[in-house]
Each structure stands twice: as structure tokens, then as C-alpha cells.
Amino acid sequence: MLKVKNIKKSYGKVKAVDGLSFEVKPGEIFGLLGENGAGKTTTFRIIMGLLDADSGEVTLDGKKVDYSMTDYIGFLTEERSLLTKMTVKEQIIYYGILKGMKEKDIINKLDQLLEEFEITDYKDRKIKELSKGNQQKIQFISAIINDPILLILDEPFTGLDPINVEMMKKQIEKLRKNGCRIIFSSHQMDHIERFCEKMVILVKGKVILDGYVKDIKNDYKKKNIFVNGDVTEKDFKDIEGVLNIEKQGEDIVIKIKDNSVTDKIFKVISKKKITKFVEEEPTLNEIFITKVGEASGK
User: Fold this and answer.
1) Hey, which bits of 165-282 come out as E strands?
2) pLDDT band at 89 (very low <50, low <70, confident <90, very high)
3) Which of 74, 226, 249, 295 is 20 to 30 A from 119 via CA?
4) Residue 126 phi/psi, 5° resolution?
């Protein structure tokens, strides 16, 4: 298990990480979210032993994370970190050897992954000759070539089209099933909802929301009701607890503060011809924007 316990890190007077704690079990994907500058990169560096926290501790399977543990960790950075004049094969051998692997094992694993990503023809091509999407695949391969027990993914789907996103999702799911602990960071909340069971949101290094994704969504009282039929926005504007009304295509979308407002809306439409009445949970994207905005004073 990865345990991050009350880590703090400051740069001068700026608190980059302020008392962050969480755990990631084998076979679990954990979401670490926040705006740019929230403290995610500092957290990643502390977890990997590249940066010392001012206080707190990080352990992986009960051991302090230091250079003796880095061979078991994979990291996909948001920024590309490939050596573009190298061939794919040279690049992956280089990273694999840094992780303590034998060249024969690296080649065998590389061939397998290139086939699964449908880019076997690129093995002897230089990185700079590949598209951005294929470079992202190679960067992902470099992060998992050592079969890590801990994998940090920072915006892993950057530059990928929907087909290639699905390929990478399958690889992530495969790693999870094999017991890898995965920390997942993305600004695309639908990916967080798809993968992560638990999550933390940081604002200026401080936790403003954490817990199981399903509980976070249940606890967020605001919901959206979609109505279609013989009604207009004016029918709902005077109902207490209605926060916003807007038109989306043929639907009227009514944002309500909590479930108590649903009955009031239903009474309005009960005598009208209605073809659609759907109450939906808020999206994680909506919760993120609201909570970050509240914490930032926006």
C-alpha cells in the first residue's frame, strides 16, 4: 500500500503542499486533482523520492520511498520527456536499463506493448518522426516498461484520439487488475469518474475535498432536472430552490439546490403534457468547478 501521511512542503512563504494524506491500495486508482499550481507536481516528486517533504512521510509497502524504491515506480509526466533523436527501441532500452532491467527483457516487453498499441512498425523510427499521439504512447510505454507496482499518470491522454484513448484505458485497467497502485491526475473529469474510486482535490496545496467519488457525488445536493414538453423557462423561475434555468437543445435544464425542490417542479408539470422528466446527479466536473471556486473565492 502507498501511504502519504500529512506531508507539507513550502517554497519560502508559499505552501505548495499543506498537510496532504491519502492511501492507495494494490489494484486501486486514486484521483489527485487540482488547478495548475495546486501542488500536484510537488506531491508527485515527494512520492517518488525526488523531493523531500518538510514534514510528514511517504511509504510504499511499509518502506520509505527513496532511490532504492524507484525501480518499482513508473511516472508519465504531463510534459513530454522523450529524447527525440533516439529511436523508439533506443529510448525504451535506455529507460528500462535505468530501472534495472536486462536488455533482453526490455525488448520482449517492448515488442508486446508495441503490438498491443498497434505501432510495431515504429520500433526503429526516431521519436521526432512520430505524431504527438504516437509519442504519447511511447511515453506511456516508457513509464510501464518495468511493470511498476506504483504508477503516476499525469494527463495520460494528452494528444490521443478516441481510439487511442481506449487502447490506453485498456492498458491502465490491465495494470490495475495486476495489482498496480495508480495515481491518476487529469483535468478531464469524465476520465476521473471512469477510473477512480477515491479522490482528493487540492487548492493551493490544501485538501478541500476528499473521499470516495460516489459519496462525494451523493453529498453534493445540487442536481439537474431535464424537462421536455409543454413548458417554458417561466414556469419554473419563481420556484424556491431553483438555482438556474437554461435551454439545452429541446430540453429545459433546471438546477436545484437539493431533492426537496423536485416535488415542487413535479407539481408544476403534473397538469401539462410532458415527454421527458429526468433528474440527474451532478457531474464531477460541476462539483470540481464549484468547490475549487468556493475555496479560491472565485
Assistant:
1) 181-185, 198-203, 206-212, 223-229, 242-248, 251-256, 274-280
2) very high
3) 74
4) -70, 145
Q: What is the distance between the alpha carbons of residues 93 and 138, in angstroms, rounded to a whole number?
A: 12
Q: Read off the pLDDT of residues 193-217 as tens digits, 9 standing for 90 and up.
A: 888 999 999 998 999 999 999 888 8
Cβ atoms of 253 and 245 closer than 8 Å = yes
Rounded to whole angstroms, the Cα distance separating 195 from 62 reads 25
Give me the phi and psi of 108, to 5 degrees please: -60, -45
Give the integer Cα–Cα distance in Å for 202 and 184: 14
pLDDT of residue 297: 62
Residue 151 and residue 73 in contact, taking contact as beta carbons nearer than 8 Å: yes
The rounded distance, in Å, linking the Cα atoms of 277 and 35 is 34
Residues 6+ apart with CB under 8 A from 255: 222, 223, 224, 242, 243, 244, 245
- Provide the CATH number for the domain formed by 221-281 in this structure: 3.30.70
CATH topology of domain 2-217: Rossmann fold (3.40.50)
Q: Where are the domains of the chain?
A: 2-217, 221-281
